Amino acid sequence: MRQNPSFAMTDVAEIRRLIELNPWVTIVSDAETGLVASHYAVLLDDRRDDLTIVGHVGKPDDLIHGLGEREMLVVVQGPHGYVSPGWYGEVAAVPTWNFVSAHLSGVPEILSSHENLAVLERLVARFESGMPQPRPLWAPPNDPEFVSRLERGTVGFRLTPTRVVGKRKLSQNRPDEIVETVIAGLSAGVGTYADPRLPAEMQRDLDARRAAR
């Protein structure tokens, strides 16, 4: 991801927030047969306060990615959406795309069976928490044999990234009044590519920049 100082996101707390809110990531590896990408959910390591993440892949994706042996790129994609040049007023302009994203790179550590099971439990608990009647990993009709078989079919990993690139492109290079116009346009849901989360993220960023002046 090409970096621009105006849009750089370097605050660890902000990148942690991005991961927490957008756990469905893309994993990319340079495998023996060429580039390979997979999609999995990850969580922040609850024992750390840095950008270490934990997750799992289903077998044989561990072999396809060379998990634990090769560098892995994890792409975290936050809110994004199309920005029309019409929102800039009567000036020469072209369309753009606002977004928040982070790339975490490094060689992951393979988890033990016990650690992997703990991650699987956390993943299920995290995403079941919003259900009307949450069903944890160990809840019936799941039994120990079923859960054990499930764990054996996956490989858990922990990635403490050695390289991080975070980018928050939210029209920071535009005057406040233009940013407000873009927020209004996005909030109205104009266009096929509107993301309802994006205007809230832009407003949050604009408020923070104003407070820092």
Task: Write a brief caption for the model.
The protein has 213 residues and is an alpha+beta fold.
CATH homologous superfamily identity? Electron Transport, Fmn-binding Protein, Chain A
Strand order of the largest sheet: 6-7-3-2-1-4-5-8
Low-confidence stretches: none
H/I helix tally: 6
Q: Based on helices, strands and strand pairing, what is the structural class?
A: alpha+beta
CATH C-level name: Mainly Beta
Q: What summary fits the major beta sheet?
A: 8 strands, antiparallel
In CATH, the topology is named: Pnp Oxidase, Chain A
Radius of gyration: 20 Å
Spell the H/E element sequence: HEEEHEEEHHEEHH
Q: Which whole number gives the mean pLDDT?
A: 95
Number of discrete domains: 1
Which percent band covers the strand fraction? 25-35%
Tell the overall outline: elongated
At CATH level 2, the architecture is Roll
Q: What distance lies between the first and last C-alpha atoms, to the nearest angstrom?
A: 29 Å
- Helical percentage: 25-40%
Number of strands: 8
Protein name: FMN-binding negative transcriptional regulator
Pfam families: FMN_bind_2
